[in-house]
Amino acid sequence: MSANHEDSESSQTAMTSKPSASSLPPPEKPNAIQTRFGVVAAFWAVILFLGFPIWWKTTSIYRAELPIQEMLDWAGGKSCRPVFPLEIRFDTPSLPDLEAQQLLRITQHTLDDLNEFSAHHLRLKLADEEAQQATEKADTALTVRLLAQDDLSSPRSLLDADTTTLDVFYPPSQIPPPSSSISPLSSYIAGELQRLFAEEKAIMAHILSNNAMGANVNTPQSPNSQAQQQISPQLAESITRRLRRSMKYAETYHLAFSLFTPGSAPSSWDIESAVQAYISPLVQVLSPISNFTIDTQVQLYASFSPTTPPPEYDETQQVWTLKEENLSAFINAAEWPLNPSIGSGPTINFILYVPAPSQSPLLVNEGKATSWIIPQWGGVFILNPPSIPTSESTKGNPPHLPANALTPAFLTFSHQLLSLLGTPQTPTSLPLRLQTLIRIRAATLLLSASSTMGSLARLTESLPSIPIPATVASSVSATLSHLSSACDSLRQGRFMAALASARVAETEAERSFFEKSMVGQMYFPDEHKVAVYLPLLGPIGVPLVLGLVKEIRRVVVGWKARRG
Amino acid sequence: MPVDRRKAAVFGGALALRLLLLLLFPSLPDLLTGRVEVSTPVTSFKRLQEGLFLYNRNASPYDGGVFHQAPLLLPIFSLLPNAQEYPFPTALFYSLVDLLNASALVTISDSAQAVSGRLYSSVRKQIKWDGVVVAAWFLFNPFTIATCLGRSTAVFTTTGILYALSAAVQGQNLNSMLALGFASYLSIYPALLFIPLVLLCYDRRAQRSNITPSTALFVVKHFAVFLLSIAGLLGISLLIIGDLFALISATYGFQLLVPDLTPNIGLWWYFFIEIFDSFRDFFLGVFWLHLTAYAGSLTVRLRRQPLFVVTSLLGIFAVFKPYPSISDASLYFALLPLYRHIFPLMRYTFFSVSALLYASLLGPAFYHLWIYAGSGNANFFYAITLVWSLGLSLVIADTIFAALRDEWEQENPDQRGRPVKQV
Amino acid sequence: MSPYFGLLRALPFLFFLFFAVRVSSEHTSNWAVLVATSRFWFNYRHLANVLSLYRTVKRLGIPDSQIILMLPDDMACNPRNAFPGTVYSNADRAVDLYGDNIEVDYRGYEVTVENFIRLLTDRLDEDVPRSKRLGSDAGSNVLVYMTGHGGDQFLKFQDAEEIGAWDLADAFGQMWEKKRYHELLFMIDTCQANTMYTHFYSPNIIATGSSELDQSSYSHHADNDVGVAVIDRWTYYVLEFLENRVTSANSKQTLGDLFDSYDETKIHSNPGVRWDLFPGGEQEGRLRTVVDFFGNVQSVEVEKTDADESGSLKEDLVELARLVEKWRTISQDYAAAGNDSLQQDNERAPSSYEVKRRNLGPVKLAEETPWEKRLIGLSILGACAAIWFTGSALTGSMT
């Protein structure tokens, strides 16, 4: 290609300068010189006016402007200090206003004294006070209903498991007198509240401290870390483990329910009604946190992998048992079709294993349990159905598992789902725990999106050859704006809104970091560039430059001749 | 009107030959349509049929990403019966287009612009083939026949270019611009011929009426006509397709950005397969610039022979286009016989002709070895396309050299016949 | 009242948790990225290397979904293979590595530098299936094994391109930034392999290679019936260690043991190990067990039905059962609380990150309407002809 270029080029120039080689060179005519000048100028015009802009445009790496400092601030925890002001409503139907307020004040005071972790604190409000502030209403975390009960010597409380209400029964005598600054009732209520939110507080402290430390080692100790020190190492350890067990956050989770059995029965189960009855409600209440899809499958003749230690027969209890340390090999990953290839997002596997009649009943741990959780993966439940006699006088599994047989399994799966999503284990009220989960998720997402921002900022600075397309910049700005709105919502105690913003922020942050076009040319040594440009510069550049030099020399000589 | 017997014989013979080939080898058209040497992604008849199918069913022909040709072809081809069931009418149509092209060539040749124009008259103008011979060279060129039977839509671009030239030499400047507009509308690159063509028109104009019009005004006027014709065609296309963005990106975007690297006889595909991705855009620019750079400089150098500039540019396009096929070479070879008078001045005729023959015989063989037999690899075929391009480039360089030599001899009559050395 | 009041009351169940769960190593999942980079029959041994490793990690429990296997060529179906459908890494041909259960994630020409880097950094198209993604996170131990032909600080991919040590280091750097691994074991068997990990800068990486700068890595032995070398030396001895000493997923063999087993007289080159990126350096790194990287961690948590503590399975079950009974009312209550704010956000959210892509919907093919189209065709032809002849007629007036 370039060879020909040179060829035609040089043949042209050669034609005009050729006579010098012949024995009788006729003088070059002025219009020949002009023509030659024209040819050289035409080539150079194309190169200068089209070639260089194209070179500049196509070989420069586009790097959109990113708010690096702002991103680093978010990652370093300088832009937002997540706080969790929980609003607790006091419902005092039997108390006069003044006394109620007095009780409230004292309780709040006691609570503040008790609280050692400033980011997470409880704010008490009277029920009727709340009606006045319609705007910027914070989510109510808990309603405390004070009920007088005459036959009590000391207060007692009852947490309603279905709603977010704590009923406190107290002897009417314990209402604090208006002047007092301490009362056993308020101490009791404060203690109860503190207990209810103890685990949440510990988890929050753990998440916040861990992240601030992990993301930015050089910053001075964040205020959260002092709270960390007050948590016993065992608690920290167990929280760490729990957090590690729970699934990584995803916009969508796929729940896969699988029935495995080593034989040919049971070959069907009432899965639809079971899912409808046990899983759907849970999915419904979890909907603010993530989306869920549900898939099911039945796999017959599912055998253990050859390396799995077989269950052992326990003579005393007449059961087959699996050793706890062997459970990790229970799933035959090579052969059981559990590969999570259902759309985007992680799959949570729930396995219902029906053992062969010859190995039934099958239990774990010397007959104490039938289910276990595999961290970040799913749960397993061993169902030992009542065996039915078959024609060959051997025991057999029923061919169909009706809905009532599935009840324990699916309740367990619901429980496992909650655990795998990181739901705390106290208090006993499920709605309260889900609210806690919302706060935990909001906090984790806020932190993870912030830390992604920091990673992206550092990446941008450390790899100068990586292109940054404009979409990344827009994703980053969307992330930052949602982060700050999430932070604001947290401060106002609107945790649902905070979670919603944090979810968007997380999605945008992930999108910006994993932008597809940011791979490009990561490392390109200079010798490669020479190899790329040499074929250009050699055959095309040399004649062009020589032509230009010749022309310039001619012009200069002519100019000098005219002057001299 | 007296019927020129020789002309009738040549044209009739050419038509008969094409139809005979079709009758004797009914599978030949489909075979040729599938060959990479004949059909490129932007001229393939197969792809046209796909577009036609969608178009006839009121879907956008560009859906599916197969069809990349100008939309005007669609309503025109919808006039013809389905080529799958009735191949004959389509073949006849293509043969007639070939004859049309040949008649344009006859006009060009008869105007004798190739040997003597306004500014220049060759000293060898007596060595010349007349129009019928030139037409015969075109019509019986195996490349032309293969293109015709392969039903490549490149023949319409050829028609546009040839009629632009024939109108220009006849002094029909307006038509010349319209035809060039048509050709450019079909496949962009003919727009680069505008500069030499408008000079040709200008020369003819100046030759006829002795008053020479202002060059700048003349060029601007004709450029406006050229643009208007393209705009008009695009307007009609827009009426047909409706979605301008889809239209532009599927046709011109496809031709300019070269996303389809199917092997062809050109140089682009292999290079762009191999180049580092980050440099793709840059080299896309370089390759296109390289193509355009010749238009200006050749025109400057050979200002006195604009028709020769057009011919040489067509040769250069046949080598350096993104999707070249043998139809481009056949167009170049169609115009070359106009320059019979400079053949004696060419120095590497034997070498270049044998390189071309070698490439055209071995090319299909190596392609077979690579794609079907699996016993060769891409380098086999690419090597052959290199030889082919080398052969063509040699012809181009050689003719340019010969033309320059011819000019030089005209300027220095005393030096005629002296051996020259290139320095 | 002690400030620990609340905590003390909360502790029992936490202690329960603590003791119920066996203390396991730090990481929570295992991923393996096994890459061969060379094509063609005479590179049989590279694919055998990688398939042997694949079998080993699978044997030690990493599921296929967490193994990314990249095979640039298909030796089993190569026409020159005298034993079609099989790949062996030993002349005794005892174990068919191909077997009937092998999941190749990237194969043939998909094995490119770009795809490899995209895999590591997860910069993949949205529609790339999960089986082709490295889904590791901050708790994952990742094993990266590469084999092919290399040189000083590069490894050739597919005879066409190469990955530089810098690229690899940057890819791991990005993985670390995005917390895509907890600890990473990098193994490479190629000529001058040790040069490949010299540029690494991210923490928590242990790297080992088969040969030093200016040293070749040699094949171990050839199978005369297969006709080519079937395995490389270093991989052979690593495998020997894994096969003979790491017999189960509970093996306590450490990385120190593995690296000590390198015998330069057998390997014919000097394998290298890089510890300095690992916190605690060599001392700490040597204590990592082999199955930390080659096996799959599954510290299962058994749920006992007889435990009474709060948050235990039993209590949860009761609660869930209650939830099931009353879920309708609850969900209404619950949804009402947060729906307002949530819905607003949901409505706003999609528009902000809507993918700007022209979606081609399905198009209905109408019946063929030839006459209409032909009319258009005719009129266009007519118009063109008219313009052409007008042009000829106007020629005279055009100056």
From TrEMBL, chain A:
**Biological pathway:** Glycolipid biosynthesis; glycosylphosphatidylinositol-anchor biosynthesis
Disordered as annotated region, ranges: 1-29
- List UniProt keywords, sorted A-Z: Endoplasmic reticulum, Glycoprotein, GPI-anchor biosynthesis, Membrane, Transmembrane, Transmembrane helix
Any one Pfam family here would be PIG-S
Q: What is its main location?
A: endoplasmic reticulum
Q: Where is the composition biased (Polar residues)?
A: 10-23
According to its record, how does it sit in the membrane?
A: Multi-pass membrane protein
Q: Where are the transmembrane segments?
A: 37-56, 530-549
Q: Where in the cell is it found?
A: Endoplasmic reticulum membrane
Q: Does the keyword Glycoprotein apply?
A: yes
As given in the record, the signal peptide range reads none
Q: Which InterPro entries match?
A: PtdIno-glycan_biosynth_class_S (IPR019540)
Organism domain of life: Eukaryota
What is stated as this protein's family in its record?
Answer: Belongs to the PIGS family.
Protein name per UniProt: Phosphatidylinositol-glycan biosynthesis class S protein
From TrEMBL, chain B:
On the tree of life, the source organism's domain of life is Eukaryota
Provide the leader sequence positions. Answer: 1-34
Indicate where this protein resides in the cell: Endoplasmic reticulum membrane
- Span-the-membrane segments of this chain are 132-165, 177-202, 223-248, 268-295, 307-325, 345-367, 379-404
Q: In which pathway does it act?
A: Glycolipid biosynthesis; glycosylphosphatidylinositol-anchor biosynthesis
Q: How does it sit in the membrane?
A: Multi-pass membrane protein
Instruction: Keywords in alphabetical order, please.
Output: Endoplasmic reticulum, GPI-anchor biosynthesis, Membrane, Signal, Transmembrane, Transmembrane helix
Q: Does the keyword Transmembrane apply?
A: yes
Query: Sorted alphabetically, which InterPro entries does this protein's record hold?
Result: PIG-U
> Where this protein primarily resides, as one coarse class?
endoplasmic reticulum
Record keyword Transmembrane present: yes
For this chain, the family text in UniProt reads: Belongs to the PIGU family.
Protein name according to UniProt? GPI transamidase component PIG-U
Its source organism is Aspergillus cavernicola
Automatic annotation (TrEMBL), chain C:
> So which domain of life are we looking at?
Eukaryota
Record's keyword annotation contains Signal: yes
Record keywords, A-Z: GPI-anchor biosynthesis, Signal
Q: In which pathway does it act?
A: Glycolipid biosynthesis; glycosylphosphatidylinositol-anchor biosynthesis
User: Can you say what this protein is called?
Assistant: Peptidase C13 family-domain-containing protein
User: Taxonomy-wise, where does this protein's organism fall, top ranks first?
Assistant: Eukaryota, Fungi, Dikarya, Ascomycota, Pezizomycotina
Signal peptide span per the entry? 1-25
Q: Cite the Pfam families for this sequence.
A: Peptidase_C13
Q: InterPro entries from the entry?
A: GPI_transamidase, Peptidase_C13
UniProt-listed PANTHER family: GPI-ANCHOR TRANSAMIDASE
Question: What family is this?
Answer: Belongs to the peptidase C13 family.
